[in-house]
Amino acid sequence: MAEQLQVFYVGTTGEVEHHAAPLRSVLPVNVCPPESLPNTVRPGDVCVFYNEFFDRFRQAASAVQRLGCSTIYAIDGILEWRNSWEFPNNAGACPWTMRPVLADKIACIGRSQARILESWGNLGKCEIVGVPRFDRLLGRTPRDPGGKPFRLLIMTANTPGFTPEQIACARKSLADLKSWIDRYNLVNLRTIQPLWRLTAGLDAEIGVPNELRDTTGADLATVLGDVDAVMTTPSTTLLESMLHGLPVAVLDYTNSPQYVTAAWTVTCREHLDRVVAELMSPPESKRLHQRTLLHDHLECRTPATPRMVTLIQEMLRLGHQSDGEVSSPRFPRRILADPQDEHHIPEETFDLQRLFPDHAVFRDLDMAKLQAEVGHLRLELQRKSAELLPFIVMMQRLEANPLSRNLLWLRRQIYRWFQPAGRR
């Protein structure tokens, strides 16, 4: 029976418990380290991996697939260029991780991630799920700053760089930002209060207090509820901050290609004046753009946990049908239905009145009045069209005659010659 099959989240308790916890309210999930997995599973079981980078996970994934288990790679964070293409060839890690993915299916965090992974040879594996542990963040709204100091959260990824050169870029960007804030606070009434959450000892190197308490993200939601904007090196914090409705800027002096983009980007010191000013008073156009990016990078219009549970249950069902086989079952190209039909639906915050406040045409929201005005305009257009019809017929006849067509062309050329240069 399919209900006798089991689901395993692969890793130690410390590594995966916060990933497995959101699923446990609906589905029994066992946490199992990769070394023990091949001796624990049975054909048809589903094994969920949060990591395919290190050899201990890759070896376990291949072993359980040979035993007839189904596998899911549940990506918990963003794709990042340096981690994907500029990671040192250290022992115990695979430099071509996800190219392609070993698992049968990939639980992608969003549509843009699925597109990138499919371009890496993973066609037919990608399922758009989201991040179940982010479900608790849905519906959050930013605090009202009022007249308080502007609180800017400044963060680095758990690994701010993979080479000495990348670490140096991160250090330089943070030092520039610190000195910029210090100068700004000397001459402005409303000051900026930075909240630093830095990794790899960068706080000590640039001389700032560090508010980082843990690197699992357990307390980040609380911190995000008490700040007004976020500036971070490329990391999943980008998406968490956007979920809170906070304006978010990427701080990246390496100027690497970005798989997850933001409405604001700082790649050199000269960008700080404009970017910080806009973080303090975000234009509506960039607020809209950030929401659009969020919904492309992260599936979050509805909770992710039900989608992940549906994916697992369907793979259990298909695994039960293949019970006893020596290889994992085949799966359809897409298991999860897409209510958006693979389109980006219009943003709820798309509002012409807010986007173009200086244009009076968008201020009138009286539907009856606007309908009447459109009706009058259409009638007037019909009358003008009727008045112009004889002229249009005459011009068509002239254009049809070779002699008159050439005369019309010559007239237009003479007219252009005698026009001022700026109006030609």
Explain what you see.
- The protein is of the alpha/beta class.
- It folds into three domains: 2-137 and 300-321, Rossmann fold (3-Layer(aba) Sandwich); 150-299, 3-Layer(aba) Sandwich (Rossmann fold); 367-423, no CATH class.
- It is 41% helix and 11% strand.
- The protein has helices at 13-24, 55-66, 81-85, 111-119, 164-187, 202-206, 220-224, 237-243, 272-280, 284-297, 305-321, 352-355, 367-400, 402-417; strands at residues 7-10, 30-32, 46-49, 70-74, 105-108, 126-128, 150-155, 192-197, 229-232, 248-251, 264-266.
- It has a six-stranded parallel beta sheet, sandwiched between helices. It has a five-stranded parallel beta sheet with strand order 8-7-9-10-11, sandwiched between helices.
- Strand 7 (150-155), helix 5 (164-187) and strand 8 form a beta-alpha-beta unit.
- The termini are far apart.
